[in-house]
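Sharing in case it's useful to others searching the archive later.

Someone asked me privately for the predicted structure of ThiW like protein, so I'm posting the question and my answer publicly. Question first, with the sequence:
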Amino acid sequence: MTKRVYYLALTSVLVALGVIGGSLFEFTVGVAKVAPMQHLINVLSGVLLGPWWATTQAFLTSLIRNIMGTGTILAFPGSMIGAFMSGWLFRYTKRLIGAVLGELIGTGIIGAFVAYPVAALFLGTKGALWVFVPSFFLSALVGVVVAYVVLKSMWSTVIKPQMERLK
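And my answer, the predicted structure tokens:
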């Protein structure tokens, strides 16, 4: 299997998990639907696939969830920025904590700031910016904690050997 086929297949699996998990595990905080599963998938894809494939995964997951009516347009800026930052910081630091911080900063802070004008433009939301940051950050925090535990537990036996084979 070529590297490209591996990335396509893994991206597809992560999109499917994101769509299903995002629909099963969600709750509302303020004006946002909080889906910690998406953040877990963003960190996984950031580490396993890199920033561009992770961003593609986040876009496709958000698109499918919006088409199905289980997500909102706010998923696009939050998840895509977080996924990219997770992959980029992991690539830069070579540490899982870099991927976790990338998702927290990318989704929890930057994504929340970008979501505010998107919500005002497309949803007619008249809320304040401070409403988005806590809900996005809380969602990202729950997801990245689970992602860190999952990745850390599989790191030396599964993930690191697979990454070595792909080089």
